[in-house]
Amino acid sequence: MTATKSAPPTGDNRPTVDPITASVIQGALESIAIEMGYKLMRMAYSSIIRESEDFGAAIVDIKCRQLCESKQSTPLQSGPIPGYIKGILRTFEARGETIAPGDVIMHNDPYGGSSHGPDVLFAVPVFHKDKLEGFAATTAHHLDIGALSPGSCGIVDAMDVYAEGLQFKAIKVYDKGVKNDMVWHMLRDNIRASHLVVDDMEAQIAAARIGAERYLELIERYSIETVNGAADALMDASERMMRNAIEKIPDGVYKATGHIDGYENSDNPKEKNLPIVVTVTVEGSDITVDLAGTADQIDLPINMPFEGTVDVAIWLTVRSILVDTATFGHVPQNSGLTRPIKILAPKGSLANPNFPAPVIARFAPGCMIADTLMRALSQAVPKQISAGIGNLKVIAFSGLANGQHWVHMEIFEGAYGGRSGMDGMDAVDTLYANTRNNPIEDIETHLPLRVDRYELRENAVPAGKWRGGIGAIREFAFEDSGGYSVEGEGHLFKPWGFQGGHEGEPADLQINPAGGEPYYLPSKLPYRAANTGDKFIAVGPCGGGYGDPLERDPEKVLDDVLDGYIDADVANADYGVVLTAAMEVDLAATARTRKERSAA
Fold first, then answer.
1. How far apart are CA 227 and CA 194, in angstroms?
2. What percent of the chain lies above the pLDDT cut of 90?
3. 205-250 per-position pLDDT tens digit
4. In b/e form, how buried is each residue of 503-537, taking b as 16+ CB within 10 angstroms?
5. What's 360-406 look like in SS3?
6. Residue 453: what pLDDT?
7. How do beta strands 393-401 and 482-488 pair?
8. Is 111 helix (H, G, I), strand (E, B) or coil?
9. Fewest C-beta in 10 Å: which of 20, 188, 225, 322?
10. Average pLDDT, the chain
11. What is the pTM of this model?
């Protein structure tokens, strides 16, 4: 069993920083991280960074505590950055190497803090008066990392991490300011679409250097003692905020079980219908999340790194539910928020695999950990959770044009479940993903793909007092020969409904070959070739409903009908709402219908 828990406050020997100065320094740190993020977005070549915002940026101090993060990035990129830095420091110590001014360090070790191999970090150390004081770092999901098939997702048949692509364990790509050309030659020679990927890496370095410069300017303006003192005070304040929220939960044990498809077409029962078990124990202002009972690791890459994926999924979920920005306003994002949270996971399980178990497709299973944790907490804080989420997919489209590889990463959105007072959000990335939808115009401008259809599903809305979010449909057509691969979830198990709300709708995938008959695909698919004219159709899941559908405001039901989400027959069948020929609510008939159904 492995546990993680952040260090407690550092004691009373710290310099005292007045609240106003601490607040100013907090604002400055947050601005640095945001600037890093925007610089990276604007310099990036690939749409997954430039448009989808699948990147992270943060400042980490010498104690490996996150001081701030780029809030326009995805939590699964910014959240693991302290773990990356810990992995770098452990690796340097083991090798007897040192860090010097001018260094730039590359790291993507999924057993050394990284979320998975395609998420590559570049760290720039910050020295003040010849002393290392921290790091400015950026992470990003790269289009290709030199794995067995094009793209950096859908590598769902890898036997171990070596088959998942190139591994970089604390590699100096700049050594005391001097570029290590051999590393860059290796990157360009071993990565498909290197004209995009390597230039994205250069953009990461430039953004991290900007962050390092800004952090050093802050230190020189206020002194390192003041900046560190302010950081301590800010983390203590974040910790108090989280502890106060935990104390409002009744002490007790809350448990839930979810399932992932796994490999739905496998003949091996250990590779499909896999349980995710979450037990939450609340004692005073401490919360423990135990994943005992979760399925054992398998020899396929849906295992999840404990540090870098599992911990981030849990931290993000607890923070979002208990310290919701909509309620609390601005919440400083730093390592203080995680101090009251202890995480346990059996070694050798999906949630804590042994090296070198493959992990590249950890994305969707990690969403299920977050969703199951939310289901457990629904027993304690029912008004602060959403019903079950519709899980996501990552689809890699690729091909070769004029001797040059092209790769497109489509993070195909899911949907949120309804929540108290609010319908579920439609066609969005959920939980720790939080990337943006990729614009059709960008896809069709840069790639030999055409998007023939992009719309919300009809008559698939999970009913509830607050309905579930609606999944999208995207239909891609290949304008040239190429291929595709998929990692995803949510084909077999419906998102859970809550307090009488209906279950959500599962996702599916279809391929419609040019001149052939369409057929369905599983949620995980290794690389397959495609011909010109083939159509790839992704149907997104719908989140669960929240609350009794017979309590939904009839005018909201009418709005859903007028918006084309459901028809009048569904309005009657699911909600007991009777509409007239003029598309108005018949209040008397609706009241009678609902009364009869409630009695029944």
1. 39
2. 92
3. 999 999 999 999 999 999 999 999 999 999 999 999 999 999 999 9
4. bbbbbbbebbeeeeeeeebbbbbebeebeeebbbb
5. CCCHHHHHHHHHHHHHHHCCCCHHHCECCCECCEEEEEEEEECCEEE
6. 96
7. antiparallel
8. coil
9. 20
10. 95
11. 0.94
543 closest CA partner among 417, 392, 421: 417
Please state, in angstroms and rounded to a whole number, the distance separating the CA atoms of residues 191 and 399.
14
Question: In sequence order, what E strands does 297-380 have?
Answer: 341-345
By DSSP bridging, strand 472-478 and strand 535-539 are: antiparallel
Under 8 Å between Cβ of 550 and 502: no
Amino acid (one-letter) located at 473: I
DSSP β-ladder status, 286-290 and 341-345: parallel
From the number of C-beta atoms within 10 Å of its C-beta (0-12, 13-18, 19+), residue 351 rates as: buried
Single-letter amino acid code for the residue at 579: L
- Determine the Cα–Cα distance for residues 248 and 132; give it in Å rounded to an integer: 40
Structure-token match 């944790």, residue found: 373
For tokens 């009488």, name the residue: 500
- The amino acid present at 560, given as its one-letter code, is D
Task: Kindly give, in sequence order, each residue whose CB lies less than 8 Å from that of residue 145, ignoring residues fewer than 6 positions away.
Answer: 108, 117, 118, 120, 152, 164, 165, 166, 191, 197
Give the Cβ contact number of residue 473 at 10 Å.
Answer: 17
Instruction: Evaluate whether 390 touches 368 at the Cβ level (below 8 Å).
Output: no
Q: Distance (Å, rounded) from C-alpha 396 to C-alpha 409?
A: 5
Closest Cα to residue 411, out of 377, 434, 380?
A: 434
What does the pLDDT average to over 94-122? 97
Closest among 442, 510, 448 to 477, alpha carbons compared: 448
Provide the CA 418 distance to its chain's centre, in angstroms: 19
- Torsion, CA 336, CA 252, CA 342, CA 424, rounded to 10: -70
Residues 392/541/486/363 CA torsion (nearest 10 deg) = 20
Q: Are 541 and 495 in contact (CB under 8 A)?
A: yes
Report yes or no: 429 and 45 within 8 Å, Cβ to Cβ.
Answer: no
φ/ψ (deg, to 5) at 597: -70, -35
Tokens 């896809």 belong to which residue?
A: 443
Strands 104-107 and 66-69: unpaired
